Sequence to fold (111 residues):
Amino acid sequence: MEKRYLVKLHNRAHAGYRRAQCVLSKGENELEVTDAQRAQLASDARIKILSVSDVQPETSDPCGGTGGVVVSELVSGSVGAETVIPSYYAPVIDTAANQPVPKRKSNRKSA
Fold:
């Protein structure tokens, strides 16, 4: 099994720039890459590597070692009960969940 790394990089090229079989956004990106992909990214003058860390080996953890959160209700997109959501989605979900729900205007005409 090939060793994998979590690489944080800054893409100075345009959004949609492709390197090492990855599509990059303009600005900061975080990717999980192999040794070969890491070498390709490091050799590109338009990409600056900010940090590199080893990805933890997979365990027998039923969550895949992601430390995810179990969602116990049906959500859209054919995701069923007891779905594991990786922990890196938690800030996005928490932010969305804490947003106030806008009040809808009634379409009924007053009599």
